[in-house]
Design brief:
Elements: H1 2-10, H2 15-24, H3 31-41, H4 46-59, H5 75-78, H6 83-96, H7 104-110, H8 117-126, H9 130-144, E1 151-154, H10 182-194, E2 199-202, H11 213-223, E3 226-231, H12 237-240, E4 250-254, H13 257-260, H14 264-279, E5 283-290, H15 296-308, E6 313-318, H16 342-356, E7 360-363, H17 374-381, H18 394-397, E8 402-403, E9 409-410, H19 428-444, H20 455-458, H21 467-476
Parallel strand pairs: 1-2, 1-8, 2-3, 3-4, 4-5, 5-6, 6-7
Antiparallel strand pairs: 8-9
Helix pairs in contact: 1-2, 1-3, 2-4, 3-4, 3-6, 8-9, 10-11, 15-16
């Protein structure tokens, strides 16, 4: 009934009627509905085509994700849970993009939907419109490899003042010196400045226990490099006095629930340090990790504290397995492909409590899209509460490049593939070329066997989990990655 009514409405001369027709198609899952929405995307009225765009995203919420590692989906995946929907959409795009030049408006509007771009490119290629497809692919690649915000991660120490059960970096300090030397610190900051890096993400370990932390801030300030500090915020007054802008524009304060729940003094110190940082011109976000023990009482205490401190954003993650498999973690593999799971209930309650308090949520580590219900997927993808792909491949595979205390490198702070010392690399691009084969292999490896039958995985919308967990699985299986460790 909706399909027939929408067909009539979209042919009407009145803009409001056509807009209503496009809205009717949001829940009408069929190839005919997709074809009608393509027609509505080419409508001359902004309200109509934007309504059609919103309807497509409601039907296929994963389209808001910019996909990575796109590959053709086999028939076994197209017959699966999400495969038919993607196949219908692709056919509709193919029918709509008929002749060169006659559908430029529609094509450009499709390009405002990140997840549709690979299909537009492939459809144009199949129609022999190679130059047009190459132009779009080039624009997409350029967007994914922009260097305006090029960054590097630095772990000057893997020492820590806490022993969180869920910490992915347990025993990362094995084989490294306790601290980066002052000479190595100067060399690392100079190297970063020469590469045009304008942002250092400071982690570890707990970076505020680093011996030369004041000098690190001074060197960064002298070089015009911003330092984004991640800390458990249980540092002493001496550190509090140097956490200020510049060079620190942002502090991600890790709320450590295991300590906060048993030590009132820890909560007081955490609060005082956040208040001091904000007074010193530093933007503060709170980081929180959901574990198997997490529940409303735990996260509501964290959210209420965020409200009292006027902190508007929570960066959250699910506890995932570190590469040495020594930490407590959520076994969300059990939720994969389930229409109703403990994970879905947990996240629904978590997101609802955040919304009641007006808090923004940002997911720091991906997890499988199929582990939550479609309703949850729509709600979470509407903002930044959900993501599905790691960004490690951006900036020519250097997005998460990490410098260790001995100046050796990791491709990411959670993937312990040890590369050369940073000062032995002639450029950051060289680091990307070195690690790219291993990262590509991790991106192309299914998280679980069920991924091989999921169109979302083939089309680059989902990687299953943080690639650090993929790395652990590969190590445990004895699968060598395509990289030779220069430090061996």
């Amino acid at each position: 009934m909706n399909l027939e009514l929408a067909t009539v409405c979209l042919q009407d001369a009145d803009e409001r009627t056509r807009r209503s027709g496009a809205a009717l198609l949001a829940s009408e899952i069929s190839p005919e509905a997709d074809n009608l929405l393509m027609r509505a995307l080419a409508d001359p009225a902004d309200t109509v085509w934007q309504t059609a765009r919103a309807a497509l995203i409601y039907r296929y919420p994963w389209l808001v994700i910019e996909p990575s590692a796109v590959r053709p989906a086999p028939d076994s995946a197209l017959d699966g849970k999400y495969g038919q929907a993607l196949s219908n959409l692709r056919q509709a795009i193919g029918q709509a993009l008929r002749e060169p030049g006659s559908d430029r408006t529609l094509r450009d509007r499709l390009l405002t939907i990140p997840g549709a771009i690979p299909d537009v490119i492939e459809v144009l290629q199949s129609k022999g419109r190679i130059e047009e497809a190459a132009e779009i692919a080039g624009l997409s690649d350029a967007a994914g490899n922009r260097h305006a915000s090029r960054q590097i991660m630095m772990a000057p120490t893997y020492r820590c003042n806490l022993t969180c059960s869920y910490c992915y970096a347990k025993n990362f300090g094995d084989g490294f010196p306790p601290d980066m030397t002052l000479e190595d610190l100067k060399a690392a900051v100079s190297w970063a400045a020469e590469q045009g890096i304008r942002r250092i993400i400071l982690g570890g370990g707990e970076p505020t226990v680093y011996t030369h932390l004041p000098r690190l801030f001074e060197l960064a300030k002298e070089r015009g490099i911003a330092v984004h500090l991640t800390s458990n915020c249980l540092y002493p007054t001496a550190v509090r006095e140097i956490v200020k802008a510049p060079p620190i524009p942002e502090l991600v304060a890790h709320y450590e629930q295991e300590r906060m729940s048993v030590a009132e003094s820890a909560a007081g110190l955490f609060t005082s340090n956040i208040e001091a940082a904000r007074a010193a011109g530093v933007n503060v976000l709170i980081r929180y990790t959901l574990t198997a023990q997490s529940g409303p009482d735990e996260w509501r205490a964290m959210m209420d504290l965020a409200q009292r401190l006027s902190v508007g954003q929570i960066n959250y993650a699910l506890a995932f397995r570190g590469c040495q498999d020594l930490n407590a973690h959520l076994a969300y593999q059990q939720s994969i492909g389930s229409d109703s799971s403990r994970l879905d209930e947990l996240l629904a309650a978590f997101c609802a409590d955040a919304a009641l308090r007006g808090l923004r949520l940002h997911l720091s580590k991906p997890f499988p899209l199929c582990s939550i219900k479609m309703e949850s997927l729509r709600a979470m993808l509407g903002g930044e509460a959900l993501r599905a792909s790691c960004a490690i491949h951006l900036d020519d595979f250097t997005r998460n490049l990490t410098i260790n205390p001995d100046l050796s490198t990791f491709p990411c702070n959670g993937i312990a593939i040890r590369g050369p010392r940073i000062i032995e690399l002639t450029s950051i691009e060289e680091a990307g070329r070195l690690f790219a084969p291993a990262i590509r292999e991790l991106m192309m490896t299914p998280y679980v066997d069920a991924c091989r039958h999921c169109a979302l995985w083939y089309r680059g919308f989902c990687q299953g989990s943080c690639l650090a967990e993929h790395y652990l699985i590969a190590r445990q299986a004895g699968n060598p990655l395509q990289i030779q460790d220069p430090c061996e």
